[in-house]
Write a structure and sequence with these properties.
Elements: E1 2-10, H1 18-30, E2 34-42, E3 45-53, E4 66-68, E5 71-77, H2 86-92, H3 95-104, H4 108-113, E6 119-125, E7 128-133, E8 142-146, E9 149-153, E10 164-166, E11 171-176, E12 183-188, H5 193-204, E13 209-212, H6 236-239, H7 242-251, H8 253-275, E14 284-288, H9 293-305, E15 311-319, H10 330-345, E16 351-358, H11 360-375, H12 381-395, E17 407-409, H13 414-418, H14 422-460, E18 465-467, H15 473-481, H16 484-487, H17 502-510, H18 524-527, H19 542-545
Parallel strand pairs: 12-13, 14-15, 14-17, 15-16, 17-18
Antiparallel strand pairs: 1-3, 1-9, 2-3, 4-5, 5-6, 6-7, 7-11, 8-9, 8-10, 11-12
Helix pairs in contact: 8-9, 8-15, 8-17, 9-17, 11-12, 12-14
């Protein structure tokens, strides 16, 4: 994992931008082990490449930018799948194998399309600069254009004098540095065309000239499947107790097959994400742990693929309310219940529970002084609440100790894939299965813009790497192939905690959990008690704007 920055200036203008020096501290937090800078003069352009490395893969850390002859690469991410085998990843890491593959590649676009895993990349090939985020947008990469000074970076400090945006994960961007102006060309991924147009309009607000090449573009469309006869099997949910319903569904071959397939894919996704760490991580992994369905499943799967000598640290955050020193929040109660169930089922595992209690004074200070810059360019009350909650949770500091783990499993993507939000139930109520399918598709398409890059910035600030098994390509491909009613059954006749995220709840029950499968969905900002339900989540946050 790394903090990366690329700066392009006119070599004759002596243009400077304070955002580079100001952001150096945050980049260093992302990659404290090694750092380097390389400067390249191309035509009239001065290109600076800065890399800050957090050692997570391979027997030895690899400094960045990596380079050979006229090729340079800054890379922040993890490559899973066929391109890099497990043995290679454990011995060499993925940075150098990826760099060598790109050097030999006949098409950078085709090579990046084949990658599985989260990444942000800047690649300089002679006089052409490429940059991109993976098509799910799991790693942060921002862009700013200030006084003809282009900056591309993992994080940029909030500054009223210039604006930045998150580079949209819509395709591969490239700039021809033989030209006298910095025009940006885009080779789009196969995504809905309206998302491309929306992203281009946002980038043009930075006074950037954007050209989209649609020659090899294949747009995605939403397919509505006919109602399946197995849908009637879900009537058991209406006529039995919760436990009886789940037992019957799991004894039905149709549902049993789907649950086992999901378990196998998620197990492999967790496995590959927790084994790729050097001894420098001190034999621990962490999990953001509200005690809910998504994170408890990850805890079980992590247990199943880790030696008992590895500690699993469960991070649970709670915020003081109304200046009363009481941290008995809804998520704290749920997490303690889930921990008891985990400890009962798997007593041989050392589960270490971190009660992370945050006073209002510390919240206000850290938000205005520090976290606001990590959330930048976002500024809503929702971004404030969630960004702060995730930052304090991922810091992993209880009153007794701070966790040394460098890998952090999080449940991002589960609600979007399996229909976990109230708006999904409302969509079903308004328009049945077709409207719900459309809402799930919209949620999935908007996921990169909603929170993935923001959460990458706030978690990585603690020198920890976010790993998201629910967003593994194989998991997403399988779940996306299922009919909507295989993922969730949002009838108003069912209580919360049964039909929403049905397939995931069945998996939890199949794994031996008996309480967790029926916990209702609760948003982090309310479960941790950081947010005020009376505020409009879309309004601008005063804490983020009044920074110091």
């Amino acid at each position: 994992m790394c903090g990366i920055l690329c700066s392009i200036t006119n070599a004759e203008s002596n243009t400077t931008c304070s955002c580079i020096d100001q952001s150096d501290f945050f980049l260093h937090n992302r990659g404290p082990d090694l750092h380097d800078i390389t400067q390249v003069l191309l035509n009239k352009w001065n290109v600076s490449l800065l890399g800050y490395v957090l050692w997570l893969q391979g027997k030895n850390p690899v400094n960045q930018p990596v380079h050979e002859n006229d090729q340079y690469m800054l890379f922040n991410g993890d490559i899973f799948g066929e391109l890099i085998q497990d043995e290679t990843r454990l011995n060499e890491g993925d940075t150098l194998p990826l760099f060598n593959a790109l050097i030999k590649s006949q098409s950078i676009l085709s090579s990046l399309k084949q990658l599985n895993g989260p990444y942000a990349i800047v690649y300089l090939d002679k006089n052409k600069l490429y940059f991109a985020r993976d098509h799910y947008g799991r790693r942060s990469l921002l862009i700013s254009n200030h006084n003809n000074h282009l900056v591309i970076s993992s994080v940029l400090k909030r500054n009223l004098n210039y604006k930045c945006i998150e580079i949209p994960p819509i395709g591969l961007f490239h700039i021809d540095l033989d030209q006298d102006s910095l025009e940006i060309n885009v080779e789009p991924w196969n995504i809905p065309s309206n998302l491309i147009q929306k992203a281009i309009q946002e980038m043009e607000q930075l006074n950037l000239k954007i050209n989209v090449n649609y020659d090899n573009y294949v747009p995605l469309t939403i397919l509505h499947k006919e109602l399946d006869s197995q849908l009637s099997m879900l009537d058991v949910l209406l006529n039995n107790t919760k436990e009886e319903s789940f037992e019957k569904l799991l004894n039905d071959i149709y549902w049993q097959t789907r649950v086992i397939k999901l378990k196998d894919l998620l197990q492999e996704a967790v496995h590959i994400r927790v084994i790729t760490q050097p001894k420098h991580c001190k034999n621990t992994i962490g999990i953001l742990f509200s005690g809910g369905l998504d994170c408890t499943i990850l805890a079980v799967l992590a247990h199943k693929c880790l030696p008992l000598s590895t500690e699993i640290h469960l991070f649970n955050v709670a915020f003081e309310k109304n200046n009363v020193n009481n941290f008995d929040t809804p998520d704290r109660k749920t997490a303690i219940e889930s921990l008891k169930e985990l400890s009962s089922i798997y007593p041989e595992r050392k589960w270490k529970f971190f009660e992370i209690n945050i006073l209002q004074t510390e919240l206000q200070e850290q938000c205005s002084k520090h976290i606001t810059h990590l959330i930048n360019p976002l500024s809503s009350i929702l971004d404030d609440s969630l960004g702060c909650a995730v930052w304090f949770a991922s810091r992993g500091c209880s009153e007794e100790e701070k966790s040394p783990c460098r890998l952090l499993l999080v449940g991002m993507g589960a609600d979007e894939l399996f229909g976990g939000y109230t708006r999904h139930r409302n969509a079903f109520r308004r328009g049945g299965w077709i409207r719900l399918s459309e809402e799930l598709a919209n949620d999935w398409n908007n996921l990169p813009h909603r929170n993935l890059a923001r959460d990458d910035r706030v978690i990585s600030d603690h020198s920890r790497q976010t790993r998201t098994p629910y967003l593994d390509e194989s998991v997403v491909k399988y779940v996306s192939s299922l009919p909507t009613w295989d993922k969730c059954y949002l009838s108003d006749k069912l209580p919360s905690g049964v039909g929403d995220k049905l397939l995931l709840r069945l998996l939890a029950y199949h794994l031996g959990l008996r309480n967790v499968p029926f916990f209702p969905k609760r948003a982090l900002q309310f479960g941790s008690r950081i947010a005020n339900s009376k505020e409009n989540a879309k309004d601008i946050s005063y804490r983020l704007q009044n920074f110091v």
